[in-house]
Amino acid sequence: MWGGFTMSVLYIRGGKPLEGELTVQGAKNSVLPILAACLLAGGPVELDNCPRLTDVAAALGILRHLGCQAGQEGHVITVDPRGAEGSAVSEEQMRSMRSSIIFLGPLLARTGQARLTYPGGCELGARPIDLHLSAIRALGCQVTEDAGGIYCRGRPVGGEVYLTLPSVGATENAMLCAVGASGDSTIVNAAREPEIVDLQGFLNALGARVRGAGSGVITVEGGRRLGGGHYTVMGDRIVAATLLAGVAAAGGHVALRGVDWRSLATVLSVFHQAGCQVASGEDRVELARDPSCPLQAVREIIHTAPYPGFPTDAQAPVMAALAASRGSTWFEENMFDSRYRHVAELRNMGADITVRGRTALVRGVERLHGARVAAADLRGGGALAVAALGARGESVLSGLHHVDRGYECLEGMLRQLGGQARREEEEPAAS
Ligand code: EPZ
């Protein structure tokens, strides 16, 4: 007996094609840096299209801990940073999610000091922050580290930041620190992800002068006082990729609104090569697969790479769809050391996948079968839901604390598209 302790699980019955339309939630990986950027605002901020996620709630908790008024009503978030004096993020908050490190740059810009411990979120392997710290140093702040954490002092003066890797988080931290710097800055070898462009749009809506996001070189004008403002967060391209993988796995025809097809062009290309019909418009993406025509293996190796390459976050969901296909597909995961933790559970559903270091060989089988499976990380959880949609019979997915970090009510999205999915509370089997 667990003394009444229960855990949420998803029951997903496969084999039913998905049909219908859905507006994709706002992007987790855009709203999180935008929330950190609210520390730079000189007045109230209102954000639309914000997803209801546990990571978003954690970021709002950090803002409140620092002294901001911050809250979410539905998909609208309001933040008033004018009362914020704090400069230390608690260890528990830092460990709650990887992107807590993104508060470092704006804290230094606002207060001239910051005290953080190392961020959590290590389920993908090593999650170093050396590029974040070198960027902060290049902008004129002192950074010291010891067993207890990271101590930064000094207001940024601006300068040249050279990133040895186009790190998304380090680019965002550098942008936020530079916006609050007294002088101008340039960030070279910056990440080019659409979420970086969204962050630039938000900062400029507050009165900043940031240019070049989406290219490898970003320039930031220093010494500008920012006001408050209103902004609408972009659609979540990885949630869109996950849902499209579900249609590829189960068959059917689905249209997704609220997402720019260009932000997931490489994923659409893979589904097209696998035999799906793909169509796209200004603000929508459609995917169809006749359930009687099996998915085809993709001849070229699917390499994950910084944008505009194939997104690492889509690797697991796309692999789950291709687990049931004709032929073999190779994956190469180049962004993280440990991002194949969904493979073991896909094997439990009948997949034939061999992993050697960074590469995974997926030998397509005719069909997966339902099983009791557990998510080990956020996108791996999305992948197991994709697999369940195409599998024979019913699957039970646990580990939803991972899934709820990035998918707002996944079962609701699947039901809206005709999927058979429900969330239940159950007592874990006594070990
Ligand atoms: C962001 O993580 C995303 N998270 C990740 O999405 C995404 O997988 C990743 O970018 C790559 O696109 C958020 O935006 C909140 P990186 P981030 O810094 O910023 C190495 C999801 O599922 N690196 O671009 O942490 C790092 O080890 C999440 O939504 C350093 O070596 O990614 C990795 O190998 C998972 N030193 C590579 O760069 C550093 O200082 C890319 O990491 C920083 C990173």
Task: Report on the architecture of this protein.
- This protein has helices spanning 28-37, 54-65, 91-96, 104-111, 130-138, 168-179, 194-205, 237-250, 265-273, 315-322, 343-348, 378-390, 400-403, 410-416; strands spanning 7-13, 18-23, 45-48, 69-73, 76-80, 113-116, 142-146, 149-153, 159-162, 185-188, 210-211, 217-220, 229-232, 252-257, 277-281, 284-289, 302-303, 328-332, 352-356, 359-363, 372-374, 394-398, 420-426.
- The protein is α+β, with helices and mostly antiparallel strands.
- Strands 21-22-1-23 form a 4-stranded mixed β-sheet. It has a 4-stranded mixed β-sheet with strand order 2-14-16-15.
- The chain starts with 6 loop residues before the first strand and ends in a 5-residue tail after the last strand.
- The mean pLDDT is 94.
- Bound molecules: ligand EPZ.
- Ligand EPZ binds next to helix 1, helix 5, helix 6 and helix 12.
